């Protein structure tokens, strides 16, 4: 048995523990009362104090039409687990780590500060309130005096050392001054500099920039509308204020210089730099014309959110769909645009929005965004997502997605229209001619039923073209080996072209090399010259460098075109159809899959017949049927139209 003094200490500890638990659980209901109207919001009034002083604040309700001067806060939500105690409206309340750091960073020493921050101003436990407040974000950020951007950086403690953030800001100012000396415009200038002509940065500058631009803030989806809608915004970094202008200039100049991007040495930092440049361009748009949500999603693909449903909801405030949503709510009617609803699962949210994108665009471009880079079949939990984009573990929910719904939370859009490294316009694919999209009402939420033509069946598939960074020389080897396999199987081509030409055109998904060639006169001969140079390069000895250099000028494909081809072939495989056509299709395809032309689609698609429905495997490029040839055969009565229920 414990001594009496130990038992007493144990009882006191238990009482303190129970008190903490009580103070953490009671306030949520007591702190928040239902908002009086659909145009009501809450604002925080923060009492002054030093950084380490206890946080004391009040929450007040205001109507959007009668708001006092206030600032809005943009930050990274992070782990929402309540860990830090504050006093709000005189009551104890627990908040998460990131919002605690944000409040301490923006607190003024000698005067109060009024601001809006979502973690406190929205009752996060009330899903209905969350769903409605999402629609007010445009008003909240556009009516604020300015937005305080709080990067996810812990404040420095040792003031005697030069903080890395100071070095990062020095680098930003150096790039901005260099840009001004070179008379570079405040947009993408198109000027190309080698790293030796770039701003004179030292290694410590690049290291600090890498750390700064790797901050999670640049990759979050909510910050897009928060910054674009704000009349003014500044960065709060280590309790110091930074202006947007020099940071934006630095982002624009680095994005234009591939060698400078390489100096960053971090995918997260490169993403941050690109996002900073994109945000600045949207902020500079004086008209701030609302864009379709689908287009905004394409511009800011890969943005992240703590709650994945916010990948859609967080962009509503700058989309043209917002007035339609507001009208549907005012009329109390359901409409074509899905309403924000945090009671829906993430899977259902994406299904509804993807269906809306298809119906509103009257096209099937979104079907081209379903390919995910990895090994195996995406509808299996055994699928291995390559770490080419970011760390992510494939889940049962990911595997359960309908095959026609892109996984918007994974930056793995490998559309034939977008992959590759050339600054070229998308090709004018029109496999379904000028026929519009035809949809039939689907019997299930997870299915969509377009009309189209079943044209052919896959009879052979080649090796998957994986990125070179994972498998050394895999792409070059696969290019040559696939060609040898196809050339052995096909002696002629259905449209009268040569097999060499058909393969070379398919490898680049129809994009022809722009440079004139000296010794060749067709895409197929260019390709064969490149294969010959590759064979020679693989046998390099001390006696062959001169021969290799001499052959370099006549390789057929230049380096830029080869990079473009690799981009188009990434995570795809070549295939042959029963009618003898050559195509480039998604990696999960297999023999027996169907080649279909769906009305409203720019490319043919690979479908798989599964019992009473079909699965979308992905888009494909097939030489000879990309310009309405299949539709003309259908119009001549040689093929028939049918409905495809795709799940």
TrEMBL record:
Transmembrane segments: none annotated. Residues 70-226 form the Heterokaryon incompatibility domain. Pfam families: HET, Het-6_barrel. It comes from the Eukaryota. InterPro entries: HET, HetReg/Transcr_Mod. Residues 1-20 have a biased composition (Basic residues). Residues 1-27 are annotated as: Disordered. This is Heterokaryon incompatibility domain-containing protein. It comes from Hyaloscypha hepaticicola.
